[in-house]
Amino acid sequence: MPANTFMDLALDEAHAAADMGEVPIGCVIVHDGDMIAQAGNRTLADRDPTAHAEMVAIRQAAAALGSERLVDCDLYVTLEPCAMCAAAISFARIRRLYYGAADPKGGAVENGVRFFASPTCLHRPEVYGGKPRPRRRRCCRPSSAPGGDGGFVGWAKARDENSALSPRSAQRRAHADLSQRTCDAWARRAIEPRKRCAAACARLCPPYGARDAALKIRVAAP
User: Fold this and answer.
1) At 5, which helix (H) or strand (E)?
2) Kind and range of the H or E element at 99?
3) Cα 193 from Cα 215, distance rounded (Å)
4) pLDDT band at 98, cuts 50/70/90?
5) Annotated catalytic residue, options 13, 54, 80, 110
6) What's this model's pTM, rounded to 2 decimal places?
7) What are the Cα distances from residue 137, in Å, to 37, 175, 179?
8) Which of 30, 84, 125, 169 has the lowest CB atom count within 10 Å?
């Protein structure tokens, strides 16, 4: 069975977990081309904080093979494993790990503690997984950014300028340009009133600098 089909089965387990009100994560374990375990998150159903999809599937696979060592087994999971599950994968001697999406917040393979890169890790599986997406800047507001370069028009302009690049590279560069212009616009919006205030203080008391004038006005206030 192709690898993408095994991941599809893991996604089916994730959907089933979501229907039960669990965190939607699914996992399957394959041995010699045959699926020997499949599970979704069961932390709420089992009242067990360790009942992550990977943990449940590893227990099922160990029972199916009659061994605590899952040698020559491949694990497919929809989300990057956490530190607990990464440790269990190492202890079980899983051969290959495939995960669908990176988890910058709770993952422990390419994010966080990077368990398999730790010197205390006894077994490192082959890892094939998603890459973390670049985080969008909070001040990037294309629909309402101040200034004339915001919104879709600015994005399209940058996109046309980068048309020689590949579609994905051009989109990333256009988004980065738009983000920078938006940040500059919001920065000007915050800095300009300060400049006007400093200039007013200097006019009120020319012999003093803006800082001293502001201090003098504050002290003289009733």
Assistant:
1) helix 3-19
2) strand 96-101
3) 18
4) very high
5) 54
6) 0.59
7) 40, 11, 7
8) 169
